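ERR on first pass: missing label on line 2. Operator R.T. fixed the label and resubmitted. Corrected input:
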Amino acid sequence: MAGGSHNRYLDVDLGTGAVRVRSFERDELERYLGGRGLGVRLLYDHTDPGLDPYDPRMVLVFAVGPLTGSAAPQSNRFSVTTKSPLTGGLADSHCGGSFATKLKRAGYDALLIRGRSPRPVLLEIEDERVELKDAGHLWGQGTTQTQGALPNRFGKAVIGPAGEHLVRFACIVSDARVAGRGGVGAVMGSKQLKAIVVDGTHKLEPARPEAYKELQKSITKYLLAHPMTGGVLPELGTANLVMTTAGRNIIPTRNFQAGRDLRTPQLSGEKMRDELLAKREGCLHCPVRCGRLVKLQERVTKGPEFETIGLLGNNLGVFDMPDVVRLGELCDDLGLDTISMGNTLGFATELTERGLLSSELAWGDVAAYRAAIERTALREGLGDELAEGTRRLAALHGGADYAIQVKGMELPAYDPRGCVGQGLEYATCNRGGCHIRGSTMFLEATGPVSIDPHSPLAKPELVILQQNLNAAVSSLVMCWFSAYAMIPPPLFRMDPNSLAYRLLMQAMLHSGPIVRVVLGLKAPTKLLWFEKFVTTYAGRDFSMGDLTELGERVFNLERMYNLREGLPPSADTLPARLLQEGTSRSSPAGVPLAGMLSAYYHVRGWDAQGVPRARTLQRLGVRT
Amino acid sequence: MPILVPHARLAALLGETSVRSAAATLGELLAEVERRVGPQDWAWARKATLLVNGRAAHHLGGLRARLEPEDQVWMVLPSAGG
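pass 2 clean. output:
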């Protein structure tokens, strides 16, 4: 079979045990393609407004994309979409590993789970065979032990004790990869679904085999030769960001009270490479291999990603890399999002320091943090409060101004006071405080381009451009890291202190009007590998214009979902600390959000209150 | 005294991860480092973003930027991830 999709999905009701194979009958696949877009379309259509995330009628959607199962680089990923127990709005989280390919091979573009099982269950899918099996023996087990108990031939997606105990930032783990954000694991736990295993035999073939094969080869070669995807990422992993974010004064430090510590370099990617690295690893068919396996005394284990280092390490005053490795490993095993966990612990530590919370937590106290993480997963003692996340913790003990969250979801490891466009991106992100829905900081502070990170100029336009592209790429469902390779290699060779470089950055800083024009274009060209792969593998003639329009459509539907669920536009903001306090003599101010936000709404085609205008939705074909 | 935190490749060359200096300006500080590593290595090592307390040096007067005792100067290379 050719064409990139099976045009069907599996609908499983855990309450009744009913299993249906359903076709996409309306505009789901045509207009939303897969992954993130398909997920929000199905969530919107299959749930009534105002449903609690833990209501049995809530759906949990696993979706793959038109390229999943192909050998297109960085394409073997899946998304999980539901309503977030943290934000009350959309949650979607993405994950690599082998689960996506196995789900596609089972013959489905998506798996929609509804209902609540009366007892812990395991969902086993093998082509048309779909079975619910007792998982009582796995309940209470960590994600490592749970995956180990399941047959190797399956792709696996499991929760740990945190999901079982409805920790609001519980994640779903698949192989060594994690769908971490927004509490998708808690919704899975609320359904008493411990694990999903899947395998199959329905292999899709490329629509244009020769062209696809040629493209696959040339893009792999390009990615491997690129300074980011072929250089920094495989060499240092995502921890390559530690030194740059520290230099920029934007790595979270003591709950965002500062932007670095002189000990931060002890957590660098270089340090991990030189002292701990055992092996590089990657997702299926991914040439980049940004994952790390590290040596920890007698064993080899997963090395921490940058976000884990930033939030469980630097932010908590933990500067010993093996300690950070162990804390990250513990969170993965318990099924906790390391970003929200580290951020919540940082907030709780500051509350303790200020005398607002009685706890044992203290900066750098690894044993106290370890105990708190374990108690959080089981909701024991203080852990029951930590399991609620920063916003709810602030409601209990105060400190809302320095609860570092947006819409209830904790911020990752880039302090936006040193990359104000990223601040706007956080504020407007549909799933709450998230960096990987546009990564504007890459254009401001961390990448080869540095468009004045303290200036609001051009940022609304750039954020929209990035958000739309990201929504499209994550509907494909490709890894966002491939987008870093869109910056042409010659830019990496420029001397950032040269006049030519500074003139170029000045031009970019004033590029807002040009970007507005670009945003309005529906370019018929095939410029990037994303649309070329859709065309050659899925057999759908797809242009750059189709790609950006897809992204804009998905983003607007997500916005409409959030509005439907009662998440007001006033939630498009940042905590007071980030708006009002500086971090150093050179960065004395907070994020100038208000001006950027009104321009952002205008360019998006939303009204002054942040609601998409009817004509915008009509232009994009967003059905509500 | 101001501190310079060099990027990893320069740090390997210098044999230390931070350099303390009595330099009064950014230009003086970098000249000190250049003297230590030699002009040949400095030619590639200097191609990094210069940040004074997290702010790009060219916003603060470039090489003429005055340094205070508590200032930190970092040299960083492009990075990416998430």
